[in-house]
Amino acid sequence: MSEEHLPARQPALFDLAECERHLVELAAPDAARFTGTTTEKDRQRVEAVLAAVVAGVPREHIARLANISTHTIAGIVERAERSGEIAGWKERMSRLLARATETMAANLVEAVERKQIAPAALPVALGIATDKKLLLDGEATSRVEHVERVRPEDVLAGIKRISAVEIEAETKGN
């Protein structure tokens, strides 16, 4: 197959190589010897794990590279969220979805312009990502409209049904 027909490679949402290198460096000493320290006390590893989580690296990938369990990562992240060291899940996902949506939109335009895809192929994914981003941010994701058709005759009949009462005012002198 010629290179003309190969799909364009999408840019990465985060620098995976840098995260991997840093996590592997930190895990190497523990693989060589048992230090007896817990992961939570290894501040450098905790910071690397949190940086990878914030960058959007999947937890299974982080666990494998840092030589720790996904449960340990969950504990690190939970403590960091509670202490305010990192943003909460909702805010992190909102930022990640914003980046993903922007990247998908740019790739959609480029792919359609190069006639690599039909114009109807990627908007569904883009729409879903945009919808979820707005939902996380508390924005409206749909609109419900109730329409009632009223005929002029119905309005006139309603006016005639209203009974008006006139009250005469009395003036009393001082």
Summarize the amount of helix as a percent range. Answer: 55-70%
Catalogue the unreliable spans.
31-37
Count of helical regions = 7
Q: Tell me the strand percentage band.
A: under 5%
Number of strands: 0
How would you describe what is shown here?
The chain is mainly alpha-helical and 174 residues long. It has seven helices and no strands. Among the domains are: 71 residues, no CATH class; 46 residues. Helices cover 58% and strands 0% of the residues. The longest helix is centred in the middle third of the chain and has 25 residues. The protein is elongated.
Keyword list:
174 residues; mainly alpha; elongated
Topology:
Elements: H1 16-32, H2 43-55, H3 59-66, H4 70-83, H5 89-113, H6 123-136, H7 152-161
What is the gist of this entry?
The chain contains seven helices and no strands. The chain is mostly helical and 174 residues long.
